[in-house]
Amino acid sequence: MAAGNFEENADAVDRLTALAASTGCTVSQLALAWLLTRGEHIVPVPGIRSPKRIEENADAADLTLTDTELKAIDAILPRGGFGARYAEGHVPSWI
């Protein structure tokens, strides 16, 4: 990860956690609710390690994010994150 990306991503997580708390949900629920606004072609596949997580994930489907909340998420992560997921030369090929 390039210098500074970790810190920028950590700051984004802190800001998203605060946004989630202000809406009365967890950051995981906020993420799932956001994904559900991306269109019917997007199908989130959340973790289900425990019954508590299953319930938390299901409750995310009942969240309705306001335009203000969606704009806040876009402002926090304007490009979906900082840095590339894979190091150059290590990007998997799915074909």
Mind sketching the topology for me?
Elements: H1 5-23, H2 27-35, H3 51-60, H4 67-76
Question: Can you give me a brief rundown of this structure?
Answer:
This protein is mostly helical.
List keywords for this structure.
95 residues, mainly alpha, 51% helix
Report on the structure:
The chain has 95 residues and is mainly α. The protein contains 4 helices and no strands. It has helices at 5-23, 27-35, 51-60, 67-76. α2 (27-35) packs across α3 (51-60). It is globular and about 40 Å long.
Helix content: 40-55%
Low-confidence stretches: none
The major sheet is characterized as: none
Question: DSSP helix count?
Answer: 4
DSSP, total strands? 0
The dominant shape is: globular
Whole-number tally of structural domains: 1
Q: Roughly how many Å is the radius of gyration?
A: 15 Å
- Classify the beta-strand content into a percent band: under 5%
End-to-end Cα distance: 25 Å
What's the helix-strand series? HHHH
By secondary-structure content and strand pairing, the structural class works out as mainly alpha
Oligomer: single chain
What number is the mean pLDDT? 90
